[in-house]
Structure formats: C-alpha cells, structure tokens
Design brief:
With 1579 residues, the chain is an alpha/beta fold. The chain contains 48 helices and 55 strands. The radius of gyration is 32 Å and the shape is globular.
C-alpha cells in the first residue's frame, strides 16, 4: 500500500497566520455570524407562470398573470406596518410596442427592437446619488460602444404603498440600449454580453458613489438592476401582489403585451423592506429554501479558480467573480449561478436539471430512460445539488418552465387549455379559465419539470425535456471509461495492536469508557445508534471542567418552519451517502474527463477501503497530521500552516486525493496530533483561498472519529471520506474481549464475527449520518459536504477563522492555543507512560459520583421530594411551613452551589433601584399563571402522571400541555364527586383530589403525528400549540413503541393496541413559512377563541424564523433549549443538536423588537428550568411565560431512572404497565407545592431588585451583569453581550400590551355561512339543510369553523343533524379541515392542498365541473397531503391526488383515482382505495388500516415500501365486499366513469387490485388468506 511519488515536504516559510489567511481568489467577505440568508432572513412564497405555447403575445395574458398573482396574496407576507408587502413581481417579454411609443413621443426618437435591450433599474433615493449611478451606467455603455437610447422613468403610483415600502422606495427607471450592428451581438451571445456589462455597471456605480467595489455592493448603496436583457423584463417591488399592477401603471397599459409571464409573491421572515429581494430574479422565481446554501456558496467560490469558457476571456471572467455572495439571499445566489451556467452555453433546462436534480436512483419510471440516469450520474461528479424545498418557475425568454425539488415539497399544479395556454402555479384556480377549454389538469411530482419551448412551440413534459438534455453527450460511455467505483470491501479480522498499545492510543485520542461501552459497542452489536432519554443535563463543553473533544463544541443545526426535515427511515429512496473523490474540472465545460472520479457508496472507509482508494489509479498523497510537542500549545498554528502548505504543494505536484492521517505509529511523548476536525477544516479553507480546492478531495485517516456526530462534522467541514482506523480496531478488541464473549455465550448479545461487528458499526454510522442530514432537510451527503451546518458554542473567532470560516460562534471561547492545551491533556494521559489500566468513565452521559456534573442528580431529586412532600398549604394565611421552606432552600442551594453548567450561570442581577419589602410584590397567584408544564404526551407518560400535572396546573392558574396523543373527553369536565380521602369514582386511578379539580390541559398540542387531534379536542383548548421541534431532538420525529400502546392509549390515538405509532420528523403540512401560516389559519378557523402557539428550538437564525412566525399570525412563540427532556432519542441528538435557550430567546426578542413585531406575540421559554432564579433570567432576556418539564416530573415523583423509553419506569411515571403505574407516588398537591416555592422565590428576587411585578423586568437585560466568582474551568474569554445587549426597553413598555383576543382570520366564508339562518337553525335543532355557494382559491379552511361550532355544542359524535354544502369553483387550501359527523361538503370543480385535514366524520366529495371535457380519472383534482391526520369520515375525489395522500390517516376512508408518492404513509387505520396510478413509496411507515390499489400496468409492487407492509391480492369475501362497497359509494357520490366501468366489469377488474396489509391487519376478516395466496413485494 503506497501513494504515488508526490513530494509533500513543504515547510512553513512565512508567519503561520499569514500562510493560513493569504488569499489568491476573489472571495467575498464572510459575515461573522454566517450568511445573511441563514441568520437574517428566510423566505417562501407563491409562484407560477402562464404562457401561450405558440408565442402569441397579448395584454390579456398579462392581465391574467396579475389576477393569478393577486390570488396568491395569502401566500405572501407584509411588513410590520401590515401594508408594505414582502415582495411581488412579474417577468415578461419586453413590451416593445409600449417602449417604442414612449420613445417616439417623449424622445422623438426610434430604435431597432431587434438590436435593443432594456434594463429595469432601482436607483438610489437621493437625486445626486441617482444621477451619479446613471452617469456611471452611461459611461460603461459608451465604453462598450453601445448607444443609450433613453432613460425612461417608470410610471408608478407611490400613494398605494405602505409606510415602510414608501420610505425605502428607490427611483425606478428603465434604460433603453441599442447595440450597433457591427458588434455582431445577437441572441444568446447578446444575453451573455449583457450579463458581463451588468456586472461591470454594478462595479462602476459603486466606484462612482465613492466606495470600494471589492468590499461594497451596489445593492447596499441603493442601486440594483432588476433585469438587463434583450428578451425579458422584471417588474417587482415591496408591494402586496394585489396592488403590483396598480403600482406599475405599465402593467395595465393595453400596449403591454407578452406571450408569457412568470409571477411571484414573497413571504419573508424579516420585515425590513428590501426592494431588490422581491422576485422574480433575472431568470427565476423561487418558492422554497436552499438548505445546503453555505456549502453551495463555498463550493461555488472554490470553483471560481477553474472557471473558463470560450465565451469569456480572463478579463470577462474576473468581472463575473464572485459569482455568489454570502450577503445575497438563497434565491439570488441560485439565480446568479444559474445565469452563469446559461450564459456560458448551457440551455436553461440543462442548467436547472444540473443544479436541482431529481432523486433518480430509486425511480422505477427511469428503467426505460438509462440515458437520464447516466446524465445525472455524470452531473453528480461536477456539481453538488442545491438541495431543499423548491418550486422554480423560470424563463430566459426562449423557454418558460417550472421544476420541483427532489422531494416534491412544494405544490405545483398545472393546466393546459385547448387554446394552447399552459398555466403552472403554487395553487390551482388562480387564473380564470373556462372549464370547457381545459384539456389537462396535472401536477408536478418530486423532481419533475414541465416547460414550453417558445422557439419550437412545443410543450416539453418531464421525461421529454430530460431526455433532450441527457442525449446531448454520451454520458454513459464517459462514465464507463473514466469512473472508478469503490465497493464496500471486506473488513480486517485480525487485531493490529496489543491491548496496551490500543489503550494508550485510545486515551491519547480522547476515548472514554462511555464511548466504548455505550456508543461503539452498541453500534457494533445492534447496527444502530444507542437510544437514551431525559435530555442533556451536563455542562456545555466550554463550561465543563473536563477535557472535551473539539467535536463537542459544535451543535448540529436543523430544519424548522422554513424547510422540513426528512424521514430517513421511511423516505430513504430520496437519500444517498454517495461521495466522489478526485479532481473536479471546470464546471462550464462538458468533457469526458469530468467523469474521472472515484465513486464511493459511503464516506465510511475501512482500512481495506482506504487501500482501494490508494490503488485506484488516482494520484494520492498522504500527509501526516502529527507534530512536535516541543513548541507547546503555541505550536499548533505552525503545524497547521505547515500542513496547509504541504497540501498545496502536493496538489501542485499532481495529487488528486489528499489523505490527512494521524496514524499513531510515531505518536510519542514528543509527538502529538492536530485534531482531525481542525486539520480537515483548515486545509479545506486554505485550498479554497488558494484556488486549489477543486483539484483534490480530502480523506481523513483518523483515530479520533467514532460517533455519528464526529463523522457529520468531518464531512460537513470538508472531508469526502473518513477511515476510523482506531475505532475499527476497538471494535475488533471489544468483540475478542472475555467480557463480550461471555455475553455472547449467555445469548445477551448476538454471536458476531469481527467482520459482522465492524459492518454493524459502519451501518450504524451511515444510518446516523442519514438522520443528521435529514434533520436539516438534506437528502444527499454530497450537498451536506462542506456545508458547515453547525453552530460553534465556545470557540474564539481566531479558531473559527483558522478552520471553520463562516461558522457561527456567538459567545467566543477557546483559542487555537486552548484547543492545543485540551488536546495535549488527552495526550499527556497516555505518554510517556500509562497511568491507568482502563478507559476512564467521565460521566458525560450518565451521572456518577466524582465524574461530570449533572444538574438532575439523585441528590437534587431527593431534596426536592422532601420539600414538596413536607409542604401543606395553610388555609388561613397561606404561610409556608418552615420545614418545607428549609427543604426548598436546601434544594435551591444545592443547585446554586454547583459548577457553572449553563450560560445563565455566568450572569447575575444588578438592579437600578433599591430593594423593597416582599409584601409590596405582586401575589404568588399573579406569578403562577405565567407557569406552564412541558408538552409531555399521554403515552410517553402514564395517565396518572399526565393528569396529576394537568390538575396541579389548573389549580394554580397555570397551563399544562397535553403533548401529542390526544386527551380523553372525560377530562374536559370538572370533578364534583371527590370523597374525603381525595379519591373520585370518576378518576379512581388518582389520589389527592379536590372538588373543582379538572384534568383538562389548557394547552392542546398539535404535533406531526396528529394523534388524537379532533374537533372536540381542539375546542377544549385555551391555547393550541404547534410543536415544530423538540429541544432534546430537534429535526427528528419519534415513535411510541408498541409495548406502550395500551388499549387506552390506542383508543385516544385512534389506533390498535400493541402497534408502534410513528410521528414523522416534519409536519407534512409545514414545508415552509407560508405553510405554517396556513396551519395557524386552520386552527384559528376552527377555534377562533383559542390562542395559537408555535414551539421552536434554539439555534442560530431562530430570530428570523420567529419573525416569520409572528407575521404568520401566531399568538405565542415558545423557545425551547437543547437541554429539554425527551422520552427517547438517539444519544447523538441529545448531546449535539440544538442550542441553549438563552441564545435563542435573546435572539428572538431582539429580532422581534427590531422588526416592530414584539407586541404581536407572547414569548415563552423552557429548557432546564428549576428555580425562581431561572425564571428571572428568562424574564430579563425577554420571556413572559416559563415552562417546566423534567423538574415537574421530579416534583410528582420521578427519580431519574432514565428508562423512559423502556416502559419500565420504577415509579410508574413513564410506563403503561399497570403494576408499575400502581407505584405512582404523585398527587397534584406535590406539584402545586413546587410551583408555589418557585413563585415565592421569584417574589423574593423581585423584592431584592426593587420591582413589584414580574412583567416590569421582561426584556430588561440591562439588569444583567457578569456574575462575580463564576470562574470558567477552562481558559479563554467568553463574550456574553449577545445575551445582555438587547434593545433598550426601559422606558417604552408598550410592546408588552398584547391584544387580549387571539389574532383573527378576518372576513371568511365560514362566518357568512354561520350567519345563514337556515344553517343556524339546523345546528341548533339538529335538522337538515343544503346550500350551494361559489368558492375561489382564496377561500381557505372552509367548513372548519362550522365544525368547531358543532363540536363545541355536541362533541365529536353528538350531532344528529345534516349540513350539506355544495361549492362551485376552486376551493382553497384545507377544504373540509376537521370535518365532523353530519357534515357533507361537496366541491364541483377542484381543490388545493390539505383537503380533509384532521377530518373526524361526515363526507367530502370533490368532482369536476359538468362543463369539463377531460377524462376526470386521468387528471388531478386535489392537491398534496389530503386526509392528513384524519380520525374518521369519508372522502371521494373523482380524479387524482398529489403526494402523501392519507398520510397519518387514523380512521378516515377514501376513494381517489390516482395518487402521487408516499400514499398511505404512516397510516394507523382507515381504508384507502386508489383506482389509478400511484407514485413511489406506498405504505411507508404504515402500521394500521388497509389500502387497495388498481394496477392496470402491472408495476405496482415496485412502488411499495416493504419495510412494514405486505402485499396481496383481494382474497377474502370481506375484503372484496369492503372494496366494492366503497367503489359503489364513490360512483354514487361523484358519478365517476372509472368507478362505473369497474363495477360493470367487476370480475375483470378485481384480480387487478392489490391489497396493502400491515402486520396489525393481517388477521382481519378483510385481509386473512391462506399463506400460499400471498405475493411477495419486489422492489
């Protein structure tokens, strides 16, 4: 095994820091806190296009586009003034008639439109600056030899703008240019030259305005060129979509004609007006978010050094750099990159499919298109995907099209008319079209595209346009000739090290006993990550007194609200760990050598796999990361500088793969190692700055990499692969140890060979990587590679600048020298001689005496139990008995005397006024009402524990949280039958009760699983919480193991006992901020008197997310910290995801104050709260309410056994086993006592500070100072100003005056229906009524408020009347949400996403207009995610549905005539019948219910996810009767021709049906059949 003969002996010739920071490429500065698109602003929107296929231009088309834009107003947002829009715009062909007429009239001139171009410019507001900008533009045009025909002020109506938009309104003018014929510029060449000129103009404007164009952008100075083209023009601004055409007078001018229009309405999470950020951009309108943005930017900047193309000379290319910017939005960066690709010769369709490819590897439909697969395989090697939920509408004037992301996470509906109009948009029904002219209604599925070629007048459908692109070059042949594949080789079975050497190396590289016993061995045994519970109560690494690995200073970021996480188990078909090694060539040139790469199926390499890389024929060089200890900690930077220079020299000598190795043969007392994460990160960024990064891949050959978090960090900061050689050796030794062999003999663990154990370990790492990718919503490891999707907690800027440029580190901390000192601490324990015979147990995971501090220790629990059990409230004067108070003092002191463990431990109070008497402070009751318990579900908790918390919180006037899982309606009543011994016949399982108690949770949670979410449940809530993420495992779903699903839990969750229940990682109706706004709208619709809260988890950028949530009409925002509890979670998530609540709360409060949104929402915070001191800390940082989770469980008796996930809680708090539940010791009084103690402490602290009300100190961070005596265990300085420098709110406290009523949905159709006397009488008298009403797509959540009204009176099942409403037109989102028994809602037309969401009963019928000429069964009639979380009722749709039909359906029944991907996902009950084509991944996560699929093409089995379900024909009479009965009912309800044909030819069709059967239904009468009759699923 050897590398190619490539010298790597470079030595440092400069100052180390100079070597590391020198830069040879044109790179934009990276903001300290990360890219603005991540930290400051996210956006989403509605988008679409309309095009006349034959290129016939008309003003009518422009008008229709304006109408369509107005019909998507609800998908946009407004600024804090509630009038200024977040942005709207339209791109069309240039209106030459209009411009020629204006030039002729105003300038008395003419120009040749065939040689002309038009720029739409935003100019600085000040006249002088605008004049300078125009002069700069004129100078450039003159220098280029172009004629400036005229400046045309664009006619506008500023009076209709909102205040903020008006204050920031630029001067808007069009520059009309004519190109001399002698230039020879036309067509695509002219567009390319205009790009170059536009970039040159931007630099010239900045210079003219007296700034440095290398530092400042024109946009920051008020200049922005919306478009400069000979084909297209963009009109956009910070307006609402409904007024765009009023603001721009041109759009209503009859002379404005176009054959196409791309339109866009923006919803930004920020409220500060930014006119340039409105869309469309120059080529596209983007609905969604790019999750991989930082990686895409880093890699695009790295590619700049290699960019070349015949179209561009060296000078021209320098003008185009930097191609992307950290200051731009994700949409702008995507557009810039796309534009470069297109102007360099790629077609627009080719560029789009290259940058946003589909998930092609598990696509059965591609079996007939191998050339498309080859094309995508080739592209994988030259461009990592821009990954994330995205609907792109695009045009270059020649082609108009739309494409959807690989996961299909945005809606995209289209229709084609007989007069050759093609309309695509985020919603159906936005463009008024005569139904009789429609020939096709469809949708784009995941990764699909549609386009219209205006030159050939063709409609290009998905496979057609991709084949057109794929057949341009022989990609398959190139791959066969050049690509090398490294398959997973066999593992080494022999031990390489003796026991002592192994131990020495393990200690030197930081292994602990917990790492080996709880992580590595568990992964080697089970092939998956270990699971743990109750959250992380140990100190942050930077605050710990123990040495930590550098990995522990990084927290994984995750998706919430603005993009969804993915389920890596159930939706693995869209995910891949595939990586490529080797030199990446110029991305602007398509060439055979672009395929010369090594393809890895996984980034986890065994020793043999690393040998395969070395022997692949690729030039490799191994660089040692060991260095001398002689220089002490200060020597680390010099060693890194040397390594960086060696890497550059190796590449210049031909290396294509650099292997950074810390192989320990030379490790000694005199030699230590550069931590591998620093080695990879520093070389990665150094090579980017040197313009060398794309010439070689980085592989880490390291001892210090064993957990999934370690691997994620290594790949995220630049490594393409990792060989964890010492971990694999540790696995081999663990398996060979007598202890393990004894466990195998006792059959406590399975018998394994060394190869199997190592394979299990690697499998666990890969599964963990999938989970980490997916929690950020990323599908491909290639897109995660170099994306740096982490936040550093406790790293000094000098260390970030060294190796992690662009990574947020808000509080400072460890310098490079500190890092070296900590690393040498591990090293010194092993060299020169071992001082121990085994690995030390540091107690980082489990609390143990003498090890790492844990705040939830047994000692603390005992003190609290004594306090709450000895306190009996006095009935006379409410005095606190001294014994109980003493116990609480011991508990409180126990916590306050412990080591610094959280950021708030570093702070103290410093008042601005004298102390007061505690009697002057508001009473305990006023404070108690601000307390809440955490969202702990009934199922995770036992009924006893769950109800005790609810009763206690109701007694004190606080709020308990139901968690997900529903709640028994018996709990909605007040107990009035309590006997003297504190028991009640109504609740015999509880003790310590009082008359007047109620166990109804005031906060009802709506989580991703939607378990138990019914109309009655929602109507019982004072507040409805949308749980977007959970502190202990953000970005992940969960599951309630079957052993915890008792009869009672199954009844509440509408499922079957003993069947595991899965909560998806995302809410499948929240893929973006406007989706969240829709769910908030739904909940306000059904229950207008309940506040809606949104639970978020602290991470960088949460402030801008919270701003979006506030704009989306939430009433309450909850910020959870990383240290919250959980019933079960992968250990790596508990330890390494999420951030302290202090950072999140301060950021949210600051952002909302800055954006003028703070008054719209109440802020709540939770995460590790234990005392009144914590409450005051939260208040001073901006919180108004305070959540207590784990500590409330301890108050009712939890002893922190940490076996919550095993159903074996010894005190019955987290168990459903009756024998354990009988041991439950808690009573409501114990919990009440705890909260009284906390409230009393709050009063005492307020008195000390001199304040009478808790409300008066909310947001007063000026009262916080650095705590004296709070010494850091580690060197390095920490800057806590991010927590204490909040907006000054000492005088103006008006933002705390919230509207006492929840936010309103305004005027809605349901209110008009409820005002109808006939409907009122029917509901009151349980009679019958039938009404017919017109409906449009802006009528959303129709029926929900009627359902809520009925449920409030009669519950879920008490209404015996009949309300039948027929709607004509296009129904908006969430039609029939929460429909109830006795209600029939019918649409004659079509409907959008979320039909029947949360449906509990009744019927929903969707059928086409009688005027429609198309075949209903072949066309799309409803959108995505229909029947989500349905708990009953029936839906009939005479047409096809979109993605995820029936997702998490509990008991709903439905018949549809086709479905997209993921049909019946996570179903736990009900029946679904599909009478047509279905997409991929049917039945993923389906644990209950049955489904039937008509398979006329014979390919259905390949589309089923076989993980859980089996597949069989309809073999029982009961099954046949069920199927036929539903089809008959469908025919009766919708007049479906397809249904009639099936029924008329039943014997022919029945054998073509498949029945999808989960294990829980295998013995049901509808499914039971002889084993021989079952058919295996083949994939």
């Amino acid at each position: 095994m050897s590398d190619r003969n490539l010298p790597v002996n470079a030595t440092t010739r400069n100052n180390p820091s100079d070597v590391i920071t020198q830069c040879r490429e044109i790179l934009p500065p990276m903001p300290e806190q990360g890219p603005r698109a991540i930290v400051e602003e996210r956006d989403a929107c509605g988008v679409g296009f309309i095009v006349q296929k034959d290129g016939i231009a008309s003003h009518d088309l422009v008008q229709k586009a304006a109408i369509a834009l107005g019909c998507m107003e609800h998908r946009g947002g407004c600024s804090a003034d509630r009038v200024s829009g977040d942005g709207a715009g339209i791109m069309t062909a240039i209106p030459w008639d209009l411009l020629e007429a204006w030039v002729a009239q105003e300038e008395e001139a003419t120009f040749d439109r065939n040689r002309a171009a038009v720029g739409m410019a935003f100019l600085p507001q000040k006249e002088l600056a605008a004049a300078k900008a125009k002069a700069a533009i004129a100078n450039v045009l003159t220098d280029e030899g172009l004629e400036l025909v005229a400046w045309r002020p664009v006619p506008t109506v500023p009076e209709i703008l909102g205040r903020q938009a008006l204050d920031n309104l630029p001067a808007i003018e069009q520059v009309i240019i004519e190109v001399p014929e002698s230039k020879g510029w036309d067509g695509d060449l002219l567009e390319a030259e205009l790009l170059r000129i536009r970039r040159r103009i931007g630099n010239a404007v900045v210079t003219m305005l007296g700034k440095d164009d290398n530092v400042v952008s024109g946009q920051s100075l008020g200049y922005y060129m919306c478009s400069l083209s000979a084909r297209t023009i963009v009109y956009k601004g910070m307006v609402q979509s409904k007024v765009l055409a009023q603001f721009y007078k041109d759009l209503t001018n009859e002379s404005y004609v176009s054959a196409f229009a791309v339109y866009h309405r923006r919803f930004s999470t920020n409220t500060m007006p930014k006119w340039p950020l409105a869309q469309p951009m120059r080529l596209l309108g983007h609905n969604g978010e790019i999750n991989t943005l930082l990686g895409n930017l880093n890699w695009m900047l790295a590619r700049q050094a290699d960019l070349e193309h015949p179209e561009w000379g060296d000078k021209d290319l320098s003008l185009l750099k930097p191609v992307v910017s950290y200051e731009n939005s994700d949409s702008a960066n995507l557009d810039n990159t796309l534009e470069l690709m297109v102007r360099s010769g790629r077609s627009l369709l080719e560029a789009v499919t290259l940058m946003v490819p589909e998930a092609y590897q598990n696509q059965p439909d591609l079996a007939d298109h191998p050339e498309i697969v080859d094309y995508y395989d080739y592209c994988r090697g030259i461009q990592e995907p821009w990954d994330g939920p995205a609907l792109l509408a695009f045009s270059d004037g020649k082609t108009v099209g739309a494409a959807l992301d690989r996961n299909g996470l945005r809606p995209a509906r289209y229709c084609i008319t007989s007069d050759d109009f093609v309309i695509v948009g985020s919603e159906a029904g936005t463009v008024p079209v005569d139904e009789s002219t429609i020939v096709e209604k469809g949708r784009l599925g995941p990764g699909q595209a549609i386009a219209v070629d205006l030159e050939t007048n063709q409609i290009l459908r998905n496979w057609d346009l991709k084949e057109q692109v794929a057949r341009k070059h022989p990609y398959g042949q190139w791959l066969k000739e050049h690509q090398r594949v490294v398959d997973k080789p066999d593992f080494t079975e022999k031990l390489s090290l003796d026991e002592e050497t192994l131990l020495k190396n393990q200690i030197a590289f930081g292994y602990t006993a917990e790492d080996l016993d709880m992580v590595i061995s568990a992964m080697a045994t089970q092939g998956k990550e270990p699971t743990y519970c109750m959250g992380d109560d140990a100190p942050l690494a930077v605050l710990s007194s123990k040495n930590h690995l550098l990995f522990d200073y990084f927290k994984q970021r995750f998706a919430q609200v603005t993009n969804p996480p993915i389920d890596p188990l159930r939706e693995n078909l869209v995910m891949s760990l595939e990586m490529h090694l080797g030199r990446r060539l110029n991305p602007l040139k398509i060439q055979p050598e672009g395929a010369r790469l090594i393809k890895l199926k996984s980034p986890v390499l065994s020793e043999a796999g690393l040998d395969q890389v070395r022997n692949s024929g690729m030039n490799t060089a191994t660089l040692s990361t060991l260095y001398s200890t002689a220089g002490g900690p200060a020597g680390l930077e010099g060693a890194i500088a040397t390594l960086c220079e060696q890497a550059a020299e190796a590449i210049n000598n031909g290396a294509e793969v650099l292997i950074l190795s810390d192989r320990a043969e030379d490790l000694s007392a005199d030699k230590t190692y550069i931590p591998p994460l620093v080695a990879v990160g520093s070389v990665h960024h150094y090579l980017i700055r040197q313009g060398l990064r794309m010439k070689a891949s980085l592989v880490a050959d390291t001892a210090q990499c064993w957990s999934t978090h370690h691997f994620a960090c290594m790949v995220g900061f630049g490594a393409s692969a990792v060989c964890p050689y010492l971990t694999l050796e540790s696995v081999r030794h663990w398996l060979a140890s007598p202890k393990t062999q004894k466990l195998i003999k006792q059959e406590r663990i399975p018998s394994l060979t060394p190869a199997e154990a190592q394979a299990n370990y690697c499998k666990a790492v890969e599964a963990g990587l999938f989970k980490i990718l997916s929690k950020m919503g990323i599908s491909l490891l290639a897109s995660y590679h170099g994306a740096q999707i982490f936040e550093a907690i406790g790293l000094d800027p000098s260390l970030v600048k060294l190796a992690f440029i662009g990574t947020t580190s808000r509080i400072g901390g460890m310098t490079p020298e500190d890092l070296a000192r900590e690393t040498m601490g591990f090293h010194a324990a092993a060299f020169p001689a071992l001082t121990t015979k085994r690995l030390e147990n540091m107690g980082f995971i489990q609390c143990r005496k003498g090890a790492e501090y844990h705040s939830n220790s047994p000692a603390m629990s005992k003190e609290l139990h004594k306090a709450v059990r000895s306190f009996e409230r006095q009935t006379k004067d409410d005095a606190v008995p001294q014994e109980a108070y003493n116990h609480y003092e011991l508990y409180k002191n126990h916590l306050h005397e412990q080591p610094v463990a959280t950021l708030r431990d570093l702070l103290d109070f410093k008042s601005d006024r004298p102390s007061i008497n505690i009697d002057d402070v508001e009473p305990v009751e006023a404070i108690l009402e601000k307390f809440c318990t955490g969202g702990m579900s009934l199922g995770a908790l036992s009924p006893e524990a769950h109800e005790v918390l609810a009763i206690a919180m109701n007694r004190i006037g606080g709020k308990s949280n139901s968690g997900e899982g529903g709640e028994d309606s018996r709990r909605f009543k007040t107990l009035m039958d309590v006997e003297e011994d504190g028991t009640s016949p109504t609740a015999p399982h509880l003790k310590g009760l009082r008359n007047g108690d109620t166990s109804c949770s005031k906060i009802k949670q709506v989580a991703s699983g939607r378990f138990g979410v019914t109309p009655e449940y929602l109507m019982s809530a004072r507040q409805i919480e949308i749980k977007v993420a959970q502190g202990a495992k953000p970005g992940e779903g969960g599951q309630l193991p079957g052993r915890k699903v008792s009869d009672y839990i199954a009844m509440l969750r509408r499922s079957k006992p003993g069947v595991t229940l899965i909560s998806p990682p995302p809410h499948h109706d929240i893929y973006s901020i406007e989706d969240l706004a829709q769910l908030i709208y739904d909940l306000h619709q059904i229950s207008p008197k309940a506040r809606v809260s949104v639970k978020l988890v602290s991470e960088i950028g949460i402030g801008t997310i919270a701003a979006g949530v506030a704009k989306a009409n939430a009433d309450v925002i909850q910020i959870s910290g990383h240290d919250g509890g959980t019933g079960a979670s992968p250990l790596s998530s508990i330890k390494h995801a999420g951030c302290p609540w202090e950072l999140g709360l301060a950021e949210v409060h600051r952002t909302l104050m800055t954006n003028g949104l703070r008054d719209r929402v109440i802020l709540r915070v939770d995460g590790g709260f234990k005392t009144g001191w914590d409450v005051l800390m939260g208040a001073l940082m901006g919180a108004e309410e305070y959540g207590f989770g784990t500590i409330a469980m301890i108050a009712e008796g939890c002893i922190m056994a940490r076996v919550c996930h095993m159903n074996s809680c010894p005190v019955g708090i987290t168990s459903q086993q009756q024998r354990l539940r009988d041991r439950f010791p808690g009573i409501p009084g114990h919990v009440v006592n705890f909260f009284y103690f906390v409230a009393q402490e709050v009063r005492s602290l307020l008195a000390h500070l001199g304040y009478t009300r808790l409300k008066d100190i909310v947001g007063r961070a000026d009262l916080l100072v650095r705590r004296e005596g709070a010494e850091l265990a580690k060197p390095g300085s920490m800057n806590l100003s991010v927590l204490t420098d909040l907006p000054d709110s000492k005088e103006d406290r008006s933002w705390l005056e919230h509207n006492p009523r929840p936010h309103s949905n305004g005027v809605v159709l349901d209110n008009a229906l409820l005002a109808d006397a006939d409907i009122q009488n029917t509901i009151r008298d349980q009679g019958s009524v039938h009404k017919t009403v017109d409906i449009v797509n802006t009528d959303r959540s129709v029926g929900a408020r009627i359902s809520g009204n009925i449920a409030k009176r009669y519950g879920n099942t008490g209404f015996e009347g009949s309300v039948h409403l027929t709607f004509k037109g296009s129904a908006g989102q969430s039609f029939g949400a929460f429909n109830l028994m006795g209600m029939t809602l019918e649409v004659v037309g079509e409907a959008n996403d979320y039909v029947g969401k949360g449906m509990n009963g009744g019927r929903i019928i969707i059928k086409p207009s009688p005027d429609a000429e198309f075949a209903a069964g072949d066309n799309v009639i409803v959108g995505n995610t229909c029947l989500y979380g349905a708990t009953g009722g029936v839906l009939f749709a005479n047409g096809r549905a979109g993605e995820r039909f029936g997702v998490r359906n509990s008991k709903g029944q439905a018949v549809i005539e086709g479905a997209g991907d993921h049909c019946c996902e996570y179903m736990t009950g009900g029946v679904i019948v599909v009478l047509g084509l279905a997409g991929r991944n049917v039945g993923a996560g389906m644990t209950g219910g049955l489904s039937y699929f008509l398979d006329e093409e014979g390919n259905f089995p390949a589309k089923v996810n076989p993980e859980i379900v089996s597949l069989q024909r309809v073999v029982s009479e009961a099954g046949e009767a069920q199927l036929k009965g539903l089809i008959q009912a469908h025919a009766d309800a919708t007049n479906s021709q397809k249904a009639k044909d099936i029924l008329a030819n039943w014997e022919t069709y029945l054998p073509k049906f498949w029945q999808v059967v989960p294990p829980s239904e295998a013995e049901s009468p509808e499914a039971i059949a002889a084993e021989a009759e079952k058919v295996a699923v083949t994939v």
